[in-house]
Amino acid sequence: MEASLAEKWTAADMPDQAGRTAVVTGANSGLGFRAFAIRLASEREGLDLLINNAGVMAPPRRETADGFELQLGTNHLGHFALTGLLLGEMQGREDARVVTTSSTAHRFGRISFDNLRGERHYFRWSAYAQSKIANVLFARELDRRLREAGSTVSSLAAHPGYADTNLQTAAPPLVDRAVMAVTNRLFAQSAEMGALPELYAATRPYLDGGLFIGPDGFDEQRGYPKVVSPVGRGRDRANAERLWTVSEELTGVRYAFGVAAGKG
Fold it and tell me: Which residue out of 128, 162, 200, 255 is catalytically annotated?
């Protein structure tokens, strides 16, 4: 059952995480994720928390080392692959969770199944929104499949609202970076506040799987964590299932639900 939301929840309200193992993704994708998953399984006994947090926003068209369009590859496909490779390490762990970071930009996203590599046409902001709605679809579909399998693992999504981080200035072209450097100072909340929805989704006891957590302020741009609703396209099960199938084909990763760590 979902617990009632505490008002103005902060990091100080997090339960003690001592003894739990967590992985927070940062800045690589593709083959780097697969090598990491193998190493983690050999060095650690089990995994309690996976936060799919790595991201890139609105760069000119580029490709990952595996040939994927950079934003979909980094923001979605890399996390899809990593989660599939680590899921066995999480099975049977008490309150194990996968938290995938999305964005309010998911509201404008559509999955262009006929142009996933951005080769026919490419607009960097549309590609970013596509990757962010992919995050929501993946998180919800993963939780649905986990529930069907009777798994102990749950999957949630979260978004930070508008937070002042280097995401806005690391990848976009120079003009975009200059504009966002100004809007960050004028309108954005701190990175620490932006992290609260992820932390809430990862650590708040008794949260239901499949939830989407974001800020409670105007238009979900800033504030304290609360349960929010994804756009209708983010709740489209047929789209989610199709994306899942395509993601398996592109990454070569097949999920084994209900398989304990180290067993297949």
Answer: 128
Contact 168, 184 (CB under 8 A): yes
Query: pLDDT tens, 139-155?
Result: 999 999 999 999 999 99
CA dist., res. 53 & res. 223, Å (int): 19
- Identify whether 255 is a catalytic site residue: no
pTM of the model: 0.86
At 225 the three-state DSSP class reads strand
Torsion angle of alpha carbons 116, 90, 102, 233, nearest 10°? 60
Residue 240 CA to residue 247 CA, distance in Å, equals: 10
Mean pLDDT confidence for 167-185: 57
> Which residue in the block uniquely carries the two structure tokens 């200059």?
178
Residue 61 token pair: 């068209």
Q: What are the structural domains, with CATH classification, of the chain?
A: 19-251 (3.40.50.720)
CA angle 2, 101, 98 (to 5 degrees): 55
CA–CA gap between residue 247 and residue 254 (Å, rounded)? 9
